[in-house]
Design a protein that fits this description.
The structure is a single chain. 37% of the residues lie in helices and 11% in strands. By secondary structure, the chain is α/β, with parallel strands linked by helices. It folds into 3 domains: 57 residues, Alpha-Beta Complex (Aspartate Aminotransferase, domain 1), CATH 3.90.1150.10; 28 residues, no CATH class; 121 residues, Type I PLP-dependent aspartate aminotransferase-like (Major domain) (Aspartate Aminotransferase, domain 2, 3-Layer(aba) Sandwich). The strands form 3 sheets. A 3-stranded antiparallel beta sheet has the order 1-2-3, with no helix packed on it. Helix 8 runs parallel beside helix 9. The longest helix is centred in the middle third of the chain and has 16 residues.
């Protein structure tokens, strides 16, 4: 028995499919101790869009650390946060004439999902959320609630509260007008489903099978939300 089997939690996934020990990575390639090279299609679940050890990013990180700057400051004001907010405002918000506030969540996707769910419920004063069949949004409790895969949610009790799953345009669902179905659910007083605080969906369902939502479908969904549902 190796040290991973002896001491690491059973809550593991990818390592069961790739029982290698990886020790080095550059750009899109990771290297195992056995000498094999692998193209990293996982990309840190999307967190490594610029690849491993991108030269420019690495230089900036090393420069920041060598300057003994703030590594963890909770929600305190820091010079790094100030610089980010100024840059984001000037390059993203101002050109689009947006007046948004920014919330600094944790560094994972599930942190962002949890924050969005809490914010939507607080603003709308409604508990319900619409998600989609086949969806995956994270492994914390709120994100699991809006994840469609029942195998992932197995034995995690209490995750389905106030979540309604709508049909995603895939497989046999492509033969029906899923947008019309969602609208009928929202407008029919006999549907038994109350208006939600928000709707969450993936433009590409990754864990659901790498399914790309049709552009026209997304446009109709946006129009539906603007017209009838959440405002």
């Amino acid at each position: 028995m190796n040290i991973f089997e002896e001491r690491e939690s059973n809550v593991r996934s990818y390592c069961r499919s790739f029982p290698e020990i990886f020790h080095r990575a550059k750009d899109s390639i990771v290297y195992s101790e056995s000498g094999k090279e692998y193209i990293d299609f996982l990309a840190g679940a999307g967190a490594l869009n610029y690849g491993h050890n991108n030269d420019y990013i690495k230089q900036q990180v090393m420069r920041y650390l060598e300057a003994d700057t703030i590594t963890h400051g909770l929600d305190l004001h820091t010079s790094a946060k100030e610089k980010f907010l100024i840059t984001f405002s000037e390059r993203v918000l101002a050109p689009k004439h947006l007046d948004y506030r920014i919330q600094f969540c944790g560094p994972t996707g599930t942190n962002a999902v949890e924050a969005a769910l809490k914010l939507a419920r607080k603003v709308k004063q409604r508990p319900g959320i619409f998600s989609f069949m086949g969806a995956y949004h994270g492994m914390t409790l709120g994100s699991l609630a809006v994840t469609g895969n029942t195998a992932i949610r197995k034995e995690t009790w209490g995750t389905s509260s106030h979540v309604t799953f709508m049909p995603y345009p895939y497989g046999f669902m492509e033969t029906i007008d899923t947008i019309a179905y969602i609208e009928s659910v929202l407008t029919d007083v006999n549907s038994g489903i109350e208006k939600p605080a928000a709707l969450i969906f993936e433009t590409v369902q990754a864990e659901g099978g790498v399914i790309v939502a049709p552009i026209e479908w997304m446009q109709r969904l946006r129009t539906l939300c603007d017209r009838t549902t959440f405002y």
